């Protein structure tokens, strides 16, 4: 224990903490919880004013298998899911105005996002109906058929935004833009459930307005250097 204390004391005497331009951050998007997803954002500084975000995400849910009605939402029947997003950001001003501020200020960005979601929900289906003699007499409509369905979605968007540095080692970011989503989901009238009802649903295809905010921490804002 004494040796450890002496080592730390010697280290403190030989090294000082120095400010540097951060190159790695980790953060999250609170709005992802609204569609039952957890997302971690890893930001990497590729070059001055150029940043790349890698964002793996997982979806989680506990479908209650409720009958589709006016209050039903596709997110109610999410069972699980996974995906990943990539965002390129360009900061045109930061490095030219003040030292140590790369990655802060206004930016333009382009994003590519993929999501695979598994749904479990109740819908309707035709069930064979047999008469008293065991012969097929026709069909009846079963309104409580359980369906399991996987849906894929690919999204592209362009945004403008602003990144603020807070408490020196954290950041807060807000952005807004437009984009397009493409899904392999096809609405089945008989099943009733529309898994592409909202722009944030995995089954949605079409144009959308993107917006949100992020919060995170710089992992290497300071470094130890020899005196």
What's this, in brief?
By secondary structure, this protein is mainly β. The protein has helices at residues 2-14, 94-97, and strands spanning 15-19, 24-28, 37-47, 50-60, 78-90, 105-130, 136-166, 170-183, 206-218, 222-226. The two termini are 26 Å apart.
What would you say this structure looks like, in words?
This protein has helices at residues 2-14, 94-97; strands at 15-19, 24-28, 37-47, 50-60, 78-90, 105-130, 136-166, 170-183, 206-218, 222-226. The chain is elongated, with a radius of gyration of 25 Å. It has an 8-stranded antiparallel beta barrel. Strands 1-10 form a two-stranded antiparallel ribbon. The chain has a single domain (23-222), classed as Porin. It has 2 helices and 10 strands, in the order αβββββαβββββ. It is mainly β and 227 residues long.
